[in-house]
Amino acid sequence: MVTTEKNLIIETKNVSVFYGDTPAVSGISLGIEREKITALIGPSGCGKTTLLRSFNRMNDLIPIARTSGEILFEGHNIYAENVDPTEIRYRIGMVFQRPNPFPKSIYDNIAFGPRINGFSGNMDELVEKSLIGAALWDEVKDRLRTSGLELSGGQQQRLCIARTLAVEPTVILMDEPCSALDPIATLAIEELMRDLSKQYSIVIVTHNMQQAARVSDYTAFITQDERRIGELVEYDDTRQIFTNPTDERTEAYITGRFG
User: The pTM is what?
Assistant: First the structure.
């Protein structure tokens, strides 16, 4: 690992996530760099999304899920008793695998979160700023009152990113945000991620090795042990992971020999 503690925005310490009595991932310790893109890669079922969802307590919404260990966000354990999970989810936003705009206008999709959060500033300016931040403003500025469901798939995903930006998060989690998109829309999202990483820390789950190599600064490879429990194999600079991994399991996965 080449990260230094002072640059970490999220740090996990021996984190395990259980569904009932069954661990999905076990003993994960890693640090997420501030204003960088970190990719989580690994075979299907290894717990990448489960780990990602633990970063903003989304797993709390699953009744049988339980998390042990510590996840520090800006030095504070988000699983401490006095922490409000809803507040965490505003600070650590999430973009899901498939675009999920609300059945509302483009404008109201963006305004929804700030309104719930008691925003009292200029909503028009916030909506415009969020859409600009998601590289969508020029395409929709003349139809803000039309339904977000009328947009193309790629535009809908950028609308969901804009909706996340509107509540002014520090970290953006992305769970395979391009898996439902065509190559052109995928390229647009990847370019957007690079732009957003100048202001936000981004963690992305992806099965696309080329995408991880293209967009991320750091990569974590997760796989299942013999008990089918997700474990962290290797975490380093993306270039190092893809050109000179230290674990033979990492090399086997990124070269397509398994997974």
Answer: 0.94
